[in-house]
Amino acid sequence: MENIQSQSYQNRYYKPISSLTKSAMDIDISAPSNSEPQVELLAALMLKVANQRDRAAFGYLFTYFMPKIRAFGLQRLNQQGLAMDLVQETMTSVWTKAHLYNADKGSVATWVFTIMRNQCFDMLRRVQHNKEDAFGDDIWPLCDTVAMNQETQIDHKFTAKLLKHLDDLPLAQRQVVQGIYMQELTQQELADALEVPIGTIKSRLRLGLEKLKSFLETPND
Amino acid sequence: MIKHHPDQDLLFAHAKGELSLSMAIAISAHCALCEACKTAVAQYTQEAADLAFNQHEIDDTTADNIDISANDISLMQSALPDELQTMLAQILCQPELATAPSNEPILVSVKNQHYSVPSVFRQHLDRPWQQLGKVSRMRFTLNEMNTRASLLHIEALGEIPQHTHKGNELTLLLAGEFSDINGNYVPGDFIMLDGHTKHAPKTLKGCLCYIVLDAPLHFTKGLSKLLNPIGELIY
Q1: Structural domain contains residue A48
Q2: Over residues B30-46, mean pLDDT
Q3: CB neighbour list of residue A110: distance below 8 Å, 6 or more residues apart
Q4: Is the pLDDT assigned to residue A207 strictly greater than 70?
Q5: Could you give the ipTM of this predicted complex?
Q6: With contacts defined as CB-CB under 8 Å, which chain A residues touch B84?
Q7: Which residue range(s) make up the domain with A75?
Q8: Got the DSSP string for B146-175?
Q9: Which of A36, A220, B149, B208 is the most exposed place for a label (fewest CB within 10 A)?
Q10: How far is the C-alpha of B166 from the C-alpha of B216, rounded, in Å?
């Protein structure tokens, strides 16, 4: 693979798949050497959008990616109107989810591609099945997932054990524990729903968790 | 230790977004359990992004001004046609999304057993469990013609009668363990069988799997033949 013209950053992408598969396990996914001014510029603009909601910077990203997304859309969706929908949907997500971009995980182009691919996947299903599905972002999460290692597996077994004791809690504490851990509500959302101060939520949660812990510590055989 | 992985072609197709929903779910769930394949997909995604974004440059006249500096920003924007100016203005009206999506694993309960499964199953778990002895199945509604995708739960000491398949059968073990004549499997194992392989999986401690079938199962062993219609019911 070394014989391809030069070792410039661009060429690393034109390796045949076979070389990739061989090295897939020990690939260095850290950011490519930033000798490429384009990559640097895009990253700088993206940071401006993420941190300052910079409209001019976004305007540049829009102008840069628009024709690329349209071309991809035409190829996949085979219709000018749908291709422009893909541009709009993708760039809207780039704008509204900019704060989820993590420069350590990859280039701006890869991030925009990810959003576009996810959106296109859902649009294709809409065209083919007439379903208002939105599964793309579940399949390819936009922010990094932590792989479920042994520790989280055990953690979840533990959670399951804990949940068995939920019914033994007083109602007020059970509501809070269920709300936070099963419905994934924030403490503020729970406070609003139950019409109590957030401090009350915090103390109910603490009391509830302590009680659950005590259930586990009691030998039950 | 996960021994069975999707092959590299499948991972690359997944990164490009070319797989069907049922298979994309399978690869995504495998990657949530397997750091090596997750890293490989990240790398393939980078490659797919480059393929998608750079191959059109030559045909596309608007992309001519790619090598510009930040100074040209305002100049480029004012060159946008009206319809795109409008789109850009519409987008800029949108507020930042407050919440980041959750990737936390999800708890699934069946027959008083509790398992955690990758978040990719989030929108598919509202179906009822159908139970038959030690076997329970939750069939997804993915609308993919003959392809069927389900969660399958086998209770401790349960097994499925020996069978072959009309098409390919994919089994992704999500929790617990099972074994067949080829060995034992651990969570994350991604097992692809073709229509010629006979197998009779059994589990000592119980297991939860994600299964994708091209075609209904057909049992091949003795009395179980009578149970053939159940092949459709189980998976």
Answers
A1: yes
A2: 96
A3: B45, B46, B49
A4: yes
A5: 0.83
A6: 62, 66
A7: 9-139
A8: T-EEEEEEE-TT-B---EEESS-EEEEEEE
A9: A220
A10: 7
Same domain, A129 and A168: no
Average pLDDT over residues B161-177: 85
B13 contacts on A by Cβ (under 8 Å): none
What phi, psi does B180 have (nearest 5°)? -140, -165
Could you read off the pLDDT of A20-67 as tens digits, one per residue? 333 333 333 333 443 355 888 999 999 999 999 999 999 999 999 999
Contacts of A104 in chain B (CB under 8 A): none
Do A128 and A160 lie in one domain? The reply is: no
For the segment B175-204, the average pLDDT, to the nearest whole number, is 89
- DSSP designation for B110: E
Chain B: closest CA distance from residue A114 (Å)? 8
For residues A186 and A130, membership in a common domain is answered with: no
Averaged pLDDT for residues A68-80: 92
Query: Under an 8 A CB cutoff, do A96 and B115 touch?
Result: no
Residue-level pLDDT at A22: 36
Does B64 share its domain with B166? no
CA angle A141/A58/A97 to nearest 5° reads 25
pLDDT in tens, A167-178: 788 888 888 877
Residue B1 lies in a domain: no
Share of chain A above pLDDT 70, in %: 70
Measured distance CA(B4)–CA(B164) in Å, rounded: 20
Among the partner residues B39, B60, B66, nearest to A71 by beta-carbon distance: B60
Any domain includes B99: no
Confidence of residue A149 (pLDDT cuts 50, 70, 90): very low
Contact present, B203 and B156 (Cβ < 8 Å): yes
**Cα–Cα distance for residue pair A149/A155, rounded to 1 Å:** 10
Which residues make Cβ contacts (< 8 Å) with residue B220, sequence separation at least 6? B162, B163, B164, B198
Cβ atoms B164, B197 nearer than 8 A: yes
* Burial per residue of A48-57, b for 16 or more beta-carbon CB atoms within 10 angstroms, e otherwise: bbbeeebbeb
Which CA distances in Å does A211 have to A161, B105, B137? Answer: 14, 24, 35
Q: Which residues contact B55 (CB under 8 A, 6 or more apart)?
A: none
At residue A9, the pLDDT reads: 38
pLDDT digit string (tens) for B57-83?
444 444 444 444 555 555 555 677 888
Q: Which is nearest to B42 in space by CA: A42, A79, A107, A71?
A: A107
